[in-house]
Amino acid sequence: MQGRTGEADGRVNILLVDDQPARLLSYRSILEELGQNLVCVHSGAEALSCLMHTDFALILLDVSMPGMDGFETAAMIHEHPRFESTPIIFVTGVHDTEFDRLKGYKLGAVDYVSIPVVPEILRGKVSVLIELHCKRRDLEAANRSLAEANRALAEANANLELEKARELEVLNRDLQASNRDLARSNQALQAQVAERNRAERALKEADRRKDEFLAILAHELRNPLAALSASARLLGMQPQKPEFAAMASSSIQRQVTHMARLLDDLLDVSRISHGVMQLQRDRVDLADVVRSAAEMVRPQLEAKQQVLNTLLPDAPAPVLADAVRMIQVLANLLSNSVKYSPEGGRIEMQLIVGEQEVSVAVRDQGAGIEPSRLEQVFDMFYQVSKAQGGLGIGLALVRGLVELHGGRVKALSGGVGQGSEFVLTLPRIQDDLALAAQPGDDGDDACAGPMRVLVADDNRDNALSWAILVEGMGHDVAVAYDGLSAVQTAALMRPQVLLLDIGMPHLDGYEVARRIRATDWGREAFLVAVTGWGQARDRAQAREAGFDEHYTKPLDPEQLEGLLRRASRKAREVRRGLAAARAG
User: Fold this and answer.
1) CB–CB of 358/425 below 8 Å?
2) Closest among 79, 43, 37 to 64, alpha carbons compared
3) What percent of the chain has pLDDT over 90?
4) Which of 13, 303, 469, 573 is 20 to 30 A off residue 232, Cα-Cα?
């Protein structure tokens, strides 16, 4: 076997297969003037072996060979996908029949030459096939060049788009500098495109509920005012009769208490939505809270001749909570059941103590709730039935207070007329270490030392004002004006505290928080969301993203100082835990 060079030099490979060396020499002498690379082998087996490591433009194949003849060799060659299109010229003797030629064509032969071979005919046929091979090779090269050009064009287009984006970004910054207020609005819209439609719908719904709330509030205030007016007239008409004076005084006291409760609920809802509700947490047995709440609603129960069955376990139910606020929560749930239960109905309140959590379930046999509206009952100003009166803020207040305690509350009902159940769940205290201050408790202890604080807000005035306040409190501060810069700065600085706006360009605050929490150092960082969104679902989304606390703008200095104290306590607890682990 001779000549195994490839086609790198521009020549094509031609495989000559014949068991007679003399004929191979004859073919070589005839075809040498074509200037191609000629490879000679003496059997079908050698031809197959040669094909394994060399590509050929065509094969000149003798039909009559001992062992594996030309037909068998051709069949095996064309069975391989790599060689199925390689052209074969059969060399045949004078005794071959038309049937033999037909058999050859079926096996993939493109032509025949007969022995004795006429040099001009063989060269002509081989030249045609070489020319076809070269054109096909050139076409493939052109296709590859075209594909490469297309790839380069696509890359150029991508770079052009990127450059255009950069130019637009520069132009946008220039526009922002010329009209800061308009730039802030545009930037906020760009950062919150995904939430815009939801916000618009929520705004329309809030507007509708606001109008409805004002009408309900006017109605709720007219009732006690009417009673107050009637009592005042009664005192004026019958000033000398003690029984009338006592009746009027009692009525005035009841109505004033009712109005004060309305105002307190409104103020509490406002404090929660603005993130300024202060909790006085301490170790509390939730069983005591259940008893106090039951006692608080006893007059309402007696007025409707309803029965409250309280189920308390023998085991204590320790939680870290503001006892006054938790009594308010359970009293609101009980009042809701009283309101929607018929006279003489039964209400059940059960305390359930688990290993990690403590739950209170309030069940009634009242009006029930459509399953599709079980989530809506906690929305502000939502009412199952206007006939029962009220402002529609009691359950919203319940959810807000429970979530401030790190708990959750849910509503259950089989449907209208099948009663309802409200279940609130709080973390259970495991040991005295759980009495350490929690987010929302503003202790008097100052920060033990300066901390590294990162402030990130696309509103530069907000970011700089917070940074100045933090620095004035003795801490090291860095500032970022978009989400991506915040992540990059945090990776270098490794801050202990991060104050993050939610609606920032490039990466929003939620994604920044998730990326920080995914790092080794960021798991123990103190993350605070400071945003214009203050609904319960916004707080829930912040918790899911990894934030420790959530505040609604504007953030005042007292709130900032308080959260920095809590962050300092968390940092000290982390250090103590690491020290204990090393000692162990």
Assistant:
1) yes
2) 43
3) 17
4) 303
What is the side-by-side order of every strand in the sheet holding 88-92?
A: 37-41, 13-17, 58-62, 88-92, 109-114
User: Which of 409, 315, 306 is closest to 348 using CA atoms?
Assistant: 306
Q: Which domains does the chain have, with CATH numbers?
A: 13-139 (3.40.50.2300), 193-273 (1.10.287.130), 283-432 (3.30.565.10), 452-583 (3.40.50.2300)
What is the C-alpha separation between 268 and 394, in angstroms, rounded? 10
CA atoms lying within 13 Å on the CB side of residue 259: 16
Amino acid 134 reads C
pLDDT digits (tens, 9 = 90+) for 220-251: 555 566 556 666 666 666 555 676 667 666 66
Cα separation, 395 vs 192, whole angstroms: 29
User: Distance between CA atoms of 400 and 275, rounded to whole angstroms?
Assistant: 10
Encoding tokens for residue 263?
Answer: 């105002």
DSSP-assigned letters across all residues of 227-294: HHHHHHHHHHH-TT-HHHHHHHHHHHHHHHHHHHHHHHHHHHHHHHHTT------EEEEHHHHHHHHH
What pLDDT sits at residue 353?
Answer: 92
Token pair 């910054």 is at which residue? 173
Sign of the Cα torsion 540, 543, 547, 550 reads: positive
CA–CA dist 357, 493 (Å, integer) = 37
Task: State the Cα–Cα distance between residues 381 and 408, nearest whole angstrom.
Answer: 20
Quick one: pLDDT band at residue 504, thresholds 50, 70, 90? Answer: very high
φ/ψ region of 3 (left if φ > 0, alpha if ψ in -120 to 50, else beta) reads left
Q: What is the mean pLDDT of residues 138-163?
A: 83
- 3-class state of residue 373 by DSSP: helix
Q: Please, is 348 exposed, middle or buried when counting C-beta atoms within 10 Å of its C-beta (0-12, 13-18, 19+)? A: middle
Structure tokens at 478: 């860095």
Query: How far apart are the C-alpha atoms of 164 and 254, rounded to whole Å?
Result: 70
Which SS3 state, helix, strand or coil, does residue 357 take?
strand
Query: What are the φ and ψ backbone dihedral angles of 12, each rounded to 5 degrees?
Result: -100, 160
How do beta strands 357-364 and 420-427 pair?
antiparallel
Tell me what the mean pLDDT of segment 277-293 comes to: 86
Task: Measure the CA–CA gap between 136 and 141, rounded to whole angstroms.
Answer: 9
Which residue, among 281, 191, 197, has the nearest Cα to 483 in the 3D structure?
A: 191
DSSP string, 426-494: EEPP-SGGGGS--TT---SPPPSS--EEEEE-SSHHHHHHHHHHHHHTT-EEEEESSHHHHHHHHHHH-
Q: Is the pLDDT of residue 1 over 70?
A: no
For residue 8, give the H/E element and its range. Answer: none
Average pLDDT over residues 338-342: 86
Contact assessment for residue 340 and residue 379, using Cβ atoms and an 8 Å cutoff: no
pLDDT at 441 over 60: no
Distance (Å, whole) CA 105 – CA 75: 11
Scanning the structure block, which residue is given the tokens 């060689």? 83
**Listed residue (135, 134, 128) closest to 113, CA to CA:** 128
